[in-house]
Amino acid sequence: MSTATSPLRPLVLLHGWGLSAAVWKPLLGHLQPQRAVHLPDLPGHGNAAPAGETLASWADALLPALPDDGVLVGWSLGAQLALELAQRHPEKVARLVLIGASPRFTMCEDWPHGLSGATLDDFRAQFDSAPEATQRRFVALQSLGDRARKQVANTLTDSLTPADSSHHAALANGLRLLAETDLRPRLSRIAQPARLLHGSEDKLMPVTAAEWLAGQLPGGRLSVFGQSGHAPFLSRPADCAGLIEGFADE
């Protein structure tokens, strides 16, 4: 889905933890066919080689997939990578669309908008001993609260990166990044306009995290989808596509 002559800004879609670029398939059918769309797998996910252990090293590994003047559409961990890319390589990023996003996934004394540290620690410990069961649990949490819960869960399940020996270390490191990353101190470095999309019933990242984040980013605007969970682009693909493309070409 690309063209060398399209005047439309290209999109780069960055998926979340444990999945692959296949998760975007329901959204793709609602995007203009003449728009260039880039679908990289995150490091160590899908068919992508692993990268280092830091969010910065993952972002740098994604850099070759970024076209000039592109719009990064990041979901969940992919949203954190989009924010990292925007401040590390601003010349490559024109705009940001952040879905189910938060600058920090775990709660702390000055951040009530996330999962408890104990919950993510439990995920990490379970992943070491029962990775497939952990992925199923994560899928259930991401689809919880969505009006199309079964459909969302099925798409997520079909898009999982296998938790086999070739992917296990990278997936475990991704969970560590979710547990430890805090982008709040660096948000002031981001100059690109941002649009945020969030499900009102998101049980992984509360909408209050997106409300706070929208207030910290240039021209940050938040659209909340009722009866949607952590992946509104799966249950409301046409609505999300319209907002993404409208913002991309402003």
TrEMBL record:
Domain AB hydrolase-1: 10-237
Cellular component annotations (GO), alphabetically ordered: membrane
InterPro entries: AB_hydrolase_1, AB_hydrolase_fold, AB_hydrolase_sf
UniProt GO MF annotations: hydrolase activity
Name of the protein: Alpha/beta fold hydrolase
Gene3D superfamilies: alpha/beta hydrolase
Lineage top rank: taxon: Bacteria
Matches recorded under SUPFAM superfamilies: alpha/beta-Hydrolases
The entry's keywords: Hydrolase
One Pfam family in the UniProt entry: Abhydrolase_1
Presence of keyword Transferase: no
Keyword Hydrolase carried by entry: yes
